[in-house]
Hints:
single chain, alpha+beta, 2 helices, 5 strands, 44% helix
Amino acid sequence: MTDNLAIIRTYAHVLGDDDLAKAWRMLYDEWTIRRTKKAKHLRSQLLRGDQVYWLDRRGNQVFATIQHVKRKYAIVEDKNKTCWNISIASLYKV
């Protein structure tokens, strides 16, 4: 755990309920802004045939090829020829 996360963990134990709710909202809003920016930037760079990967629920990298890019999602095909509808913000370009 980084020092920043240790500080947040300490605050989680020290802050009152109202302050903790406000702090959580601030972190969530910042996360949403960063994720949206990343998705917009990546969407403009992704083309059919590009190699990408994402992390599955277990934290494993799943590699696939872009088939179609939509507004918020991309249809990708993995090596088993399975098509997935994945959020662009979850994808990383290889």
